[in-house]
Design a protein that fits this description.
CATH topology of the largest domain: Aminopeptidase
Radius of gyration: 21 Å
Number of strands: 12
CATH architecture of the largest domain: 3-Layer(aba) Sandwich
Mean pLDDT: 96
Largest sheet: 12 strands, mixed
Strand content: 25-35%
Structural class: alpha+beta
Helix content: 25-40%
Strand order of the largest sheet: 1-2-3-4-5-12-6-11-10-9-8-7
Order of helices and strands: EHHHEEEHEHEHEHHEEEHEHE
Low-confidence stretches: none
Shape: globular
Number of helices: 10
Amino acid sequence: MRHYPLYKIDEKCLRRLGQGVLKTYNLNKIIGLDTEKAIAKECEDLLALNEDCNAEHFAELRQRRAISDSVPDDDLYAQVVEADDGSLFIVSVCRNDDDETMFEVFSEHPLSEPLLAQLVRYISKVFCWCTPRYICIWPAPGSIPAKQLLSLAGSRAVDSLLAAQDPKLTVDELLCADIALQPFELDKDWPWYERDYTQFLMQHPEMATIVPISEKDDISEAIAAGLCSAAFYRGKPLGMIMAESSDELGFNGLLISDIFITGQFRGQGFASPMQRLYYQQHMQDFEFFFGYIHADNKPSYNNALKQGRELLRQEVYLPAHLFL
């Protein structure tokens, strides 16, 4: 194997990797996919691994991780790895929401356990300045490699991309009359949103990194874009739903980033009608509706399926010690 920093990749190799990433999606039911636009989007996302790579960031990284001056800056970048047979990979060092170090791997071809072990052992010599807890990969949902890797001790599914081009919109007429969706207003709606969300996380601390409360700045951006709504049931705060525009897979997409039901209405079946009313408001402006849901968040995952969304892509964590 050989390696070099991602900023040195050429367009041909980048495209090969973009094609490889596209194969990790379940695209069987996607209509009207522009393959070239989708590959271009994946290539753009791969190059984004270099976004924070500058002198200031590297100085902070070296100080925080006590990295020796003998380690060149090039070894701090995400790395392109070329196997002996010419197959390509990109490996980057990142941290998850629990502040744990990971090697995230993108590959031109599906990953097998032996190949991944060879790759991880190789790249760990380059990334000698850190020790990963997990290897993060994105195997195609339901594929043989995905099943094999998920069968390894300690492996687990994490973020799940669930999407629909034609989400379900039907809402019971009587229920529809009782639910009002209004633009979220920080001065009026933030207090009850923050209070209820904080109470929810106090009751369920294990969900703090799975469904963290949205930041005020993010809500403000969504409000400015007309994509943040507060829901009320007979005048009482029912919940909040927020999204942002996205060009995932090259589509004009709407990425759902927060869905929250207040405590007094939680578990009573309001999440579906609230979402469907929100979709109704934005059907004319977007052609692809999706969101990332943690695999352990079963209520939200199952509710997304009820809205017609399906699993397109799956993040998987593998214990690093299995490969080192």
